[in-house]
UniProtKB/TrEMBL annotation, chain A:
GO terms for biological process: actin cytoskeleton organization; barbed-end actin filament capping. GO terms for molecular function: actin filament binding. It comes from Cannabis sativa (Hemp). The keyword Aminoacyl-tRNA synthetase does not apply. Heterodimer of an alpha and a beta subunit. The gene is LOC115720413. One of its GO terms (cellular component) is F-actin capping protein complex. This is F-actin-capping protein subunit alpha. Belongs to the F-actin-capping protein alpha subunit family.
TrEMBL record, chain B:
Heterodimer of an alpha and a beta subunit. F-actin-capping proteins bind in a Ca(2+)-independent manner to the fast growing ends of actin filaments (barbed end) thereby blocking the exchange of subunits at these ends. Unlike other capping proteins (such as gelsolin and severin), these proteins do not sever actin filaments. InterPro entries: CapZ_alpha/beta (IPR037282), CapZ_alpha/beta_2 (IPR042276), CAPZB (IPR001698), CAPZB_N (IPR043175), F-actin_capping_bsu_CS (IPR019771). Its main location: cytoplasm. It comes from Cannabis sativa. This is F-actin-capping protein subunit beta. Belongs to the F-actin-capping protein beta subunit family. GO terms for molecular function: actin filament binding. One of its GO terms (cellular component) is F-actin capping protein complex. Pfam families: F_actin_cap_B.
Length: 304, 255
């Protein structure tokens, strides 16, 4: 009996396991995972702890979007807009969403304070880019949301220093009745370099999908890319940045499609061929042939 | 237990081992259920006598040792470890030889092992295992894959012979993961696991091996096909729902 007790997990270990499961939930499935984890732990207090530590991390890394209670739009949960543990800035409406991480809802909003917002100079660039990205999103993503944040230099009053904007695009599709969920997340860091009058972009794109009808198959795809353009006035900058982002994301989608179409005859073939090297079904009925083939394969050195 | 199986349906298949050991430590009272219902990636040992590798599973395990199909010896060595009857061992040897050729023809590499044992109702059970590392550093002939693993587990319960026929119940699981990685398209990774069952009554005129082999070949082709067409296809469909490819023509920035 003593042995059994010794080998039993302590509370911290149990909580760590619970957190591991929660953080590894596929896109849009953390609530389902949470239900199962809660049942397995059978300890509500421990579960609450694990949940309160995991959900904020999951919500931010999956960049989930929550509808604002006044229906003026959506707020994306990301570290770029994080003002406090439960407070996330929506730069477009200059509001701060107060959210419940575990329930994944926005409970109330408050107007952002002046010090939480960028200076008018930065805001001009941010707002112009937001408008262009919004246009792009509405054309390219049926259910996409986007936000443009100021990453650094938000208090600059005019030219003379570097600053950074961050474009976040998040699109999710949850279709549990069809056993399918997925998400697309893009983060574009855009640095305005004052001394060389150049704008440098670096993008991180991540796509996940899960199909689980009588099985469990998951796609996990990531891509990073860089580009740059010359510094111009806010409007022109916004137009060329949006066009660069559109270009890279369109190319990335095409490369994903190419990866899929390469599967049957190239990549998947390295795991198992559709037909044997002989291109005919295996001759199970002809055992005599086996000893013969075996000798040949030995001679050719392909047998193990 | 239901919740545990629910989690296994959602956790990324490449984390199956971690997930299973986590569940085993949380639910020690369900360990035998978990081990029988959750398939995990196959492990390999080297047979010291023949120098050939063999696959480990619950079916060739006795205590902490595993029986090699090549030498019929347990590794690490085990006195009076369970062995199949002489007659069944003969079939097992033959099955291993033939399955090696089958595996080479379909997989162009990899490892296979077949284990057989008597069961309680006058029939027997056979377990056919295949493990293939299809990465370019492994047995991937074409060198496309950064990482690529295929594990297949086929368990066939063969009923007693009745009037020249026998009942075969095949349960098959395939677990796979593949990753391609290049500058232009980044990391592209698919992983999955599916399990299916097939039942047949067949004449044993041509022998058990022939019947079992055909069933496995048919099943493997079906599984490969549905992974390729259905499962991978559904994830692709999802990607194209998120961002449809038929995007409006790119607008050029105004001069």
């Amino acid at each position: 009996m003593a042995d059994v007790e010794e080998s039993e997990l302590n509370e911290t270990q149990k909580k760590d396991i619970a957190k591991w499961f929660l953080l590894n939930s596929p896109p849009g499935e953390i609530q389902y995972v949470a239900k199962d984890v809660k049942a397995i732990l059978d300890d509500d207090e421990l579960y609450e702890e694990a949940a309160s530590e995991s959900f904020p991390v999951y919500n931010k890394s999956h960049m989930i979007s929550l509808e604002l209670p006044d229906r003026t739009g959506d707020v994306i949960i990301t570290s770029f807009g994080e003002l406090g543990k439960n407070e996330f800035l929506d730069p477009r409406t200059a509001q701060v969403a107060i959210i419940d991480h575990v329930k994944q809802v926005c409970t109330e909003v408050r107007p952002a304070m002046d010090e939480e917002l960028p200076s008018p100079y930065i805001e001009e660039y941010r707002c112009a880019l937001d408008a262009e990205i919004l246009k792009y999103i509405s054309e390219a993503y049926p259910k996409g949301v986007c936000s443009v944040y100021c990453g650094s230099g938000k208090d600059l009053e005019g030219p003379g220093s570097d600053f950074e904007l961050v474009v976040v695009i998040s699109a999710a599709r949850h279709s549990p009745q069809n056993f399918c969920n997925g998400s697309w997340r893009s983060v574009w860091n855009i640095e305005f370099k004052d001394d060389i009058q150049l704008v440098e972009l670096s993008g991180k794109l991540q796509v996940g999908a899960h199909y689980f009808e009588e099985g469990n198959v998951q796609l996990d795809a990531k891509h990073e890319c860089q580009d740059s353009t010359i510094a111009q006035c806010a409007e022109d900058c916004a137009i060329s940045l949006a066009s660069i982002i559109r270009h890279h994301e369109t190319e990335y989608l095409a490369s994903l499609e190419a990866s899929y179409s390469n599967l049957p005859d190239t990549t998947f073939k390295d795991l198992r061929r559709k037909l044997p090297v002989t291109r005919t079904l295996f001759p199970w009925h002809n055992t005599m042939q086996f000893s013969l083939t075996r000798d040949i394969s030995k001679e050719l050195g392909i047998g193990k | 237990m239901e919740a545990a199986m629910g989690l296994m349906r959602r956790i990324p298949p490449k984390h199956t081992e971690t997930a299973l050991s986590a569940l085993l430590s949380l639910l020690p009272q369900h360990s035998s259920d978990l081990l029988s219902q959750v398939d995990q990636p196959l492990q390999v040992l080297c047979d010291v006598d023949s120098g050939k590798e063999f696959i480990l599973c619950e079916y060739n395990r006795d205590a902490d040792s595993y029986r090699s199909p090549w030498s019929n010896k347990y590794h690490p060595s085990l006195e009076d470890g369970a062995l199949p009857s002489a007659e069944l061992r003969k079939l097992e040897i033959e099955a291993n030889d033939i399955f090696t050729i089958y595996r080479d023809q379909y997989y162009e590499g990899g490892i296979s092992s077949v284990y057989m044992w008597e069961d309680d109702n006058e029939g027997f059970v056979a377990c056919f295992l295949i493990k293939k590392d299809g990465s370019k550093t492994g047995d991937g002939r074409r060198g496309y894959l950064q990482e690529g693993a295929w594990d297949a587990i086929h368990v066939i319960e063969v009923g007693p012979e009745e009037e020249g026929t026998a009942h075969y119940r095949l349960t098959s699981t395939v677990m796979l993961s593949l990753t391609t990685n290049n500058d232009a398209s980044g990391t592209f990774s698919l992983s999955g696991s599916i399990r299916r069952e097939m039942n047949m009554d067949l004449s044993i005129e041509e022998g058990h091996l022939c019947n079992m082999g055909r069933m496995i070949e048919e099943m493997e082709s079906k599984l490969r096909n549905s992974l390729d067409q259905v499962y991978f296809g559904k994830t692709k469909e999802m990607v194209c729902t998120l961002r449809p490819p038929s995007e409006v023509v790119m607008r050029l920035p105004e001069a």
